[in-house]
Please model this.
Amino acid sequence: MDHIVWDWNGTLFDDVQLCFDCINRLLQRHGLRPLQTLEQYRAVFDFPVSAYYRRVGFDFDRIPFAVLAEEYMADYQEKSARCPLYPDVLRTLRRGRELGIGQIVLSASKKDYLMQQMEQCGVREAFDSVWGIENIYAASKEDLVHLLRGSLPPSDRLWFVGDSLHDAQVAGAVQAGCVLVTTGHQSRVRLESAGAPVADSLWESLSAICREAGIAAQG
Model:
């Protein structure tokens, strides 16, 4: 069986503008210069999140990363209730089901936050399983992906869809296919450096997976 492993933030869940606004509020609160544009944000956003925070100017000797992460999430979480899904999410998930492809979410979001957002968007039941990080510091998804891979039959194939270079790294950790989408938190130029197919929409990412997997995707 084939399974698509979807990233959540910036892939299915459109929180890019909110994340841009939240990091700028955090920077300004601590006397640092905010990012000027979404393009600048997409050029610096990264995993692990601690590396991203350093890149935008935070000094952990002055303010510990744990404190900054708590402040950021206190700002982000309530406001995220107003973030939408990307416009083609439901259509793409529905078509994947029609094609017999399993649907999974794997995210660097804290699991209880992730589940809350999915419930708010009305898509929790669209997925066979949901995998999230157990704390807010979002160091890596690589431990989770090995657990996910081990939960499925060895003959099943995984196809990752995400919006960051980290998603390609996670896919590579279990020798899975990967398509990266340009609508999220990192720029096309950065995504293209991964060597994976790059798509401009979720619908296009499904088509790319079907081509790679040999699945007829008409309809």
Observations:
- Strands lie at 2-6, 102-110, 129-133, 157-162, 177-181, 198-199.
- The mean pLDDT is 93.
- The two ends are 20 Å apart (CA to CA).
